[in-house]
Amino acid sequence: MGFRARVNSINNFIKRPNDIPFSISTWEKFKFLISGIIYDFIVAFIFVILISILEPLMTPYENILNSELYSFWKSILLITILPPLLEELIFRFPLKYKRNYVFRFIAYLFKSDFSGFWRKHLRIIVYLFSATFGFIHLSNYNNVDLVFFMLAPIIVGAQLFAGIIFSFFRLKMGFVWALLGHFSHNFILIMMSFMFFHNVERSLLDDDEVKIEATGIAFKLDNPTRLTIDSLQNGNILCLDAQNYSLQKLLDELYRTDTLRIRDNDQLNLKLYSKKEEGYAKDQLLEVLKEFYTFKKVTDSISKNE
After folding, report:
1. I want to staple 157 with a disulfide (CB 3.0 to 4.6 A). Which of 47, 151, 242, 278 is the partner?
2. Residue 292 phi/psi, 5° resolution?
């Protein structure tokens, strides 16, 4: 059975979930696991594209998971291991009637056998558990409003689909495979963050006036923070070197106002070198930063005097 056939099996499950387990080898289950994860990330990528298209509407919504940095290994523990374990116990383990002890306890109280009801309505039950799993991730965001809830199916679309994939693993291959799928999903996200955002240097601007480089920091470092600014009396910057520094803190240092707020907790190394003796204006630097980083809309703020 190839990748396309395995995806077709997943799609058939999505259309009509059932709890009839596969009679296949461990190796075949492993191939289903890999195929399911690949399928999951293909769909997730589509939602990433949709979110990027809707970026002007998404600007106010801050993911609180980005508010604090953790070390790489602490991120593995807090993102790859503990949440999947807890979420799978809540949202996938009970999908088997024999393992849904809450439902069976209710049946015991009423002196009834609800297993027939469970089988008859399993499709709805899987959809409800998957939807709850997906929409509960809305709690990762603040500054919610009507537009946010209208966009909710897109914002957590990847989680909604992942919930169905993990349900497939649970019902067709077993709870351990749902755990492995969830672990793998989150671990891949961590590794992608490490490869594409951590210690990745990019040039923000390099022209006749200035050279500005930034290196993103996605995971907490033990390196000390350092900020060195060489500027002229008019405020223009000759040289700036920020190491392991919060972008928000850098903005506070440079502009002394509470009207400039970064949406996410961007940590970086930033280097600026002016190629002209008159230096580089801070207003110009701000425009460059606004091109690459997301600023919150702040109103009714009071500027501070330098």
Report:
1. 47
2. -110, -15
Residues 155 and 136: beta-carbon distance below 8 Å = no
User: Distance between terminal CA atoms of the chain?
Assistant: 69
Handedness of CA 80, 86, 92, 93 (dihedral sign): positive
pTM of the model: 0.88
Say how far apart CA 63 and CA 160 lie, in whole Å.
17
272: which strand partners?
212, 240
Taking Cα atoms as reference points, which of 174, 158, 162, 133 lies closest to residue 30? 174
Structure tokens belonging to residue 115: 């297993």
* Closest-CA residue to 19 (of 169, 238, 135, 152): 169
- CB-CB contact of 184 with 37 (8 Å): yes
Q: Distance between CA 87 and CA 95 in Å, rounded?
A: 13
> Which uninterrupted H or E stretch holds 195?
helix 175-197
pLDDT digits (tens, 9 = 90+) for 40-82: 999 999 999 999 999 888 888 888 888 788 899 999 999 999 9
